[in-house]
Design goal:
single chain, alpha/beta, 5-stranded mixed β-sheet, 3-stranded mixed β-sheet, 5 helices
Length: about 300
């Protein structure tokens, strides 16, 4: 006598494919959400680093009756007068809470506080400790630090409308008629270098922006109106990073201006400690007055 129980039916191929498609869609949604969260966290970390660097600058100035670091200020590495002493090196003890830089002298430790998690030019097989010198993702406004200056007296346009710090790829294109027919790879380091000197290291530049000694694009003010020295320039919004140090034709990141890490805006820190994002659409007439400490322009704090 044959059984009369229910007949078991196997899963059809269509059902399997539908299930796989649903799992794939859900996985893609989760991965996308995780990636967005990581980017948002890295953006927040980058802004917080800039905020902490600004606070360290104020700590430095408070300990020295308002004096700012810069030219003709003793270096924390050597304790001697260096014309191009790096402001970021000088304020580092106030950022890290210790003064060990004076002890290591020329050992060039990697200072992670000055390396952005978003800097795409530092991604590669070579560990940063093997670069030989500490790279830097942040650059200071040389319009303020290019001469002996004080926080209260030099920045007469206001701390909230004068730019202190912004971002630039540590590795990018460097334009100089002295090297490789005008184009080579530029490396931004914390230790200062003599600009455009005819030696093999002249493409290793200091962590400055709007610096005329490096032939950067700089603000030019006439009758209260500030324009760039080269028309058409503000900052580069997420330019293509240089992929090979041996190929001078690759990459779009130009060392003469600031760079945003991702498309959508440039992170900038002002002397009052605020950190904001400037949109790519910002006009030259609004961007370059932010670099002048006493140009007398009328600019918005937003």
């Amino acid at each position: 006598m044959s059984g009369t129980g229910p007949v078991r039916r196997g899963t059809s191929l269509i059902e399997v494919l539908v299930a796989v498609a649903i799992v794939g869609i859900l996985s893609a949604m989760v991965i996308c959400a995780v990636q967005k969260a990581r980017v948002a966290a890295a953006q927040a970390d980058d802004k917080n680093r800039m905020r902490q660097i600004t606070l360290a600058l104020h700590g430095y100035a408070a300990a020295r009756q308002g004096q700012l670091p810069g030219r003709k200020v003793p270096s924390v590495y050597t304790d001697i007068d260096i014309a191009n002493s790096s402001p970021l090196l000088n304020i580092y003890p106030h950022l890290s809470g210790n003064s060990y830089l004076k002890k290591v002298k020329r050992q060039y430790p990697v200072l992670r506080e000055y390396i952005s998690p978003l800097d795409p030019s530092l991604v590669g097989p070579t560990p940063l400790e093997q670069w030989g010198e500490p790279p830097c993702s942040y650059v200071v406004n040389q319009q303020v630090f290019g001469a002996p200056s004080r926080l209260d007296a030099t920045i007469r346009d206001g701390l909230s409308t004068t730019l202190f710090l912004t971002t630039r790829f540590s590795r990018c294109i460097f334009h100089s008629p002295q090297i490789n027919a005008g184009v080579d790879t530029s490396y931004t380091y914390l230790e200062p270098y003599e600009p455009l000197s005819p030696n093999p290291w002249s493409f290793r530049r200091s962590c400055t922006v709007a610096d005329p000694s490096w032939r950067d694009v700089v603000p030019v003010t006439t009758d209260g109106v500030t324009v760039p020295s080269e028309p058409g320039w503000t900052f580069q919004d997420a330019p293509r990073v240089r992929v090979s140090a041996d190929d001078p034709t690759t990459g779009e990141a130009d060392s003469r201006v600031a760079h945003s890490w991702r498309a959508g805006g440039l992170h900038v820190a002002f002397f009052d400690g605020s950190v904001r994002t400037l949109p790519p659409s910002i006009p030259e007439s609004a961007y370059w007055p932010l670099f002048t400490p006493s140009g007398g322009e009328v600019v918005s704090a937003e």
